[in-house]
Design a protein that fits this description.
CATH class of chain B: Alpha Beta
Number of strands of chain A: 17
Largest sheet of chain A: 7 strands, parallel
Mean pLDDT of chain A: 94
CATH architecture of chain B: 3-Layer(aba) Sandwich
Distance between the termini of chain A: 46 Å
Strand order of the largest sheet of chain A: 7-10-6-1-4-5-11
Number of domains of chain A: 2
Order of helices and strands of chain A: EEEHEHEHEHEEEEEEEHEHEHEEH
Number of domains of chain B: 1
Strand content of chain B: 25-35%
Order of helices and strands of chain B: EEEEEHEHEHEHEEEEHEEEH
Oligomer: heterodimer
Low-confidence stretches of chain B: none
CATH topology of chain B: Rossmann fold
Helix content of chain A: 25-40%
Distance between the termini of chain B: 55 Å
Number of strands of chain B: 15
Structural class of chain A: alpha/beta
CATH superfamily of the largest domain in chain A: HUPs
Chain lengths: 317, 245
């Protein structure tokens, strides 16, 4: 029985978290059929074979170039049917998560999102999901025949296992009613490493003293190929855009390395970063609560430490 | 316009999470419960729309009797009436089915809620309600303006936002900065006591999901401090010990 994987593209490239979704489905035992909607390069789709997709369905109707939640849910539900796939895997994202909900409701599938590891199938089908904004986990049995699983970054290891996938055009009939929402324009930073996708995140807090000092955060991020984030006060004061706000009511990240500079470590901020593999805290206040949640800490002035750290990292390359 | 706001009753964001009964039950002792922060944004926007367009605002919560102070707070903030579906909110599908049932009967134009609850974080209820009612659902919405039957929204996406338009009726999962949280004033608190709060039975739903157990993450080891004068040491540790570079 094939497992269907919805893959998302950004700036013409398949997102890293979607590659992980393919790897996740492969590790579950496949065979894996991936599906992409809208304009994506064929070579990108063929390359999904590397991570275990045998086949890729490409629904390239231009109406699907924009991520319309309802339309995407209809196409994915139809594809589950056509491919006789009982399981849909996708990556949690601003599009994937709401789409997953509608697909589950449409197909009668049991839904689990924020899944952090492969299912345990020793007795039933049990997934582990992150709850209480990273403060705990729940083990949930999905009892329905059909299942929709939305995974978090790092739920599966990205391993190259195969070659080239066969790409076939997929042309389901599209109902006008599914296009009742219209996307009139999009504002997106280009060329930036996206926060939820990043393996390394460098975040700044009020300790950076003003938006004019963000060059120090950006320089370090550039050296590390990292995304930049910030604390809630920083986004509230308009120093940085809201999509960079990491925390309980912002973006939740789970990178390999999280570097927090001048962030005191309120519990709401920690909730957004506590599933990072390694946390480094740089703060001039030795009593900052963030140090308790860190793996490594430096007590020092950001304006002194950041340039030195940047040089040391460059030298280590 | 008739607005329905769906609110969750969740532990305050500063709560320490613990479980009892062999990790199968949430431990509420010492925990302060609040309106879900994202739901609170949805409620605040609903009250603004009520004031600017003369709408009515009904709040709905799926929960047992303990959630009533949370519902009363929503009434104190300015909702007109409330419905409590008397059941444990076990999963997204169950909660969404209860909301959809009442939304159908109530003929609401706009259904607002948070992008996700902060206990289960599934971010699914808005989508499931939309699907059950056969109407659009948009999330996460950071700006929402109603002009006649047209709704203009900004939806947050990775690295930016997109502007979305749809017609009423629709469901929106909200987040900041859609509106500023509202704090109830004394008049609101007094009037909330007498506003209608209807308690209804839940409809039976099989969501195909069964909780087996909860788990807390392993405790974090001690932090290793490095002197600001020897930052090179940190680079070495990140490379060789943590293996993250």
């Amino acid at each position: 029985m094939a497992i269907l994987v919805f893959v998302e593209a950004a700036e013409g490239k398949i997102k890293g978290n979607s590659l992980e979704a393919v790897a996740y489905a492969k590790a579950m035992g496949g065979p894996v059929t991936a599906i992409a909607l809208g304009a994506v390069d064929k070579a990108e789709l063929e390359a999904l074979g590397k991570y275990g997709a045998e086949k890729v369905l490409h629904a390239k109707d231009a109406k699907l170039d924009q991520g319309i939640i309802q339309a995407y849910a209809s196409v994915l539900s139809k594809a589950m049917d056509d491919e006789k796939a009982d399981i849909l895997v996708l990556a949690n994202s601003s599009l994937g998560t709401p789409v997953a909900a509608r697909v589950a409701a449409k197909t009668g599938a049991a839904l689990a999102s924020n899944v952090v590891e492969l299912p345990n199938t020793s007795s039933g089908f049990v997934v582990k999901k992150s709850i209480y904004t990273g403060k705990a986990f729940a083990h949930i049995e999905l009892k329905s025949q059909k299942k929709v699983i939305a995974i978090r970054k790092n739920a599966a290891e990205l391993k190259e296992v195969g070659g080239t996938a066969t790409v076939t055009d997929y042309n389901p009939s599209l109902a006008d009613a599914d296009f009742a929402t219209k996307i009139t324009s999009t504002e997106r930073a280009t060329g930036e490493i996206l926060l939820p996708e990043a393996n390394i995140v460098v975040s700044g807090g009020r300790g950076m003293k003003g938006p004019e000092h963000w060059g120090l955060i950006e320089d370090l991020a550039k050296t590390l190929h990292a995304a930049t984030g910030c604390s809630k006060p920083v986004s509230d004061m308009g120093w940085r855009p809201h999509h960079e706000h990491v925390g309980q009511t912002g973006v939740k990240v789970s990178p390999q390395l999280y570097i927090a500079v001048g962030i005191s470590g309120a519990i709401q901020h920690l909730a957004g970063v506590n599933s990072s593999k390694c946390i480094v805290v740089i703060n001039k206040d030795a009593d900052a609560p963030f140090f308790k949640a860190a793996d490594y800490g430096i007590v020092g002035d950001a304006f002194d430490v950041l340039p030195k750290l940047n040089e040391a990292l460059k030298g280590a390359k | 316009m008739k607005i329905l706001v769906c609110i969750s009753h969740v532990p305050d964001t500063t709560s320490k999470i613990n479980f009892t009964e062999n990790n199968t039950k949430f431990d509420p002792s010492g925990v302060q419960f609040i309106i879900g922060p994202y739901d609170d944004y949805a409620l605040a926007r609903a009250i603004e729309l009520k004031e600017s367009t003369g709408s009515t605002v009904t709040v709905i919560n799926v929960g047992t009797a303990e959630t009533e102070p949370t519902i009363r707070k929503a009434l104190a903030i300015g909702a007109d009436d409330a419905i409590r579906v008397n059941a444990e909110p076990t999963d997204s599908f169950f909660v969404a089915a209860q909301i959809a049932e009442h939304a159908k009967a109530g003929g609401y134009d706009l259904i607002l809620m948070g992008r996700e609850s902060i206990d289960y974080n599934s971010g699914a209820v808005h989508g499931i309600v939309g699907e059950m009612l056969g109407i659009p659902s948009v999330s996460p919405v950071m700006k929402l303006e109603v002009d006649g039957t047209k709704v203009k929204m900004a939806r947050e996406i990775e690295g930016g936002k997109e502007y979305v338009e749809a017609n009423l009726p629709l469901v929106a999962g909200c987040q900041e900065p859609i509106a500023e949280w509202k704090i109830p004033n004394m008049r609101g608190i007094m009037s909330a006591k007498t506003k209608p709060l209807k308690v209804v039975d839940a409809k039976a739903v099989d969501s195909g999901i069964k909780l087996q157990k909860f788990e807390l993450p392993p405790p974090k080891g001690a932090v290793k401090m490095i002197s600001a004068d020897t930052v090179g040491e940190l680079v070495t540790l990140l490379k060789n010990e943590a293996k993250v570079l």
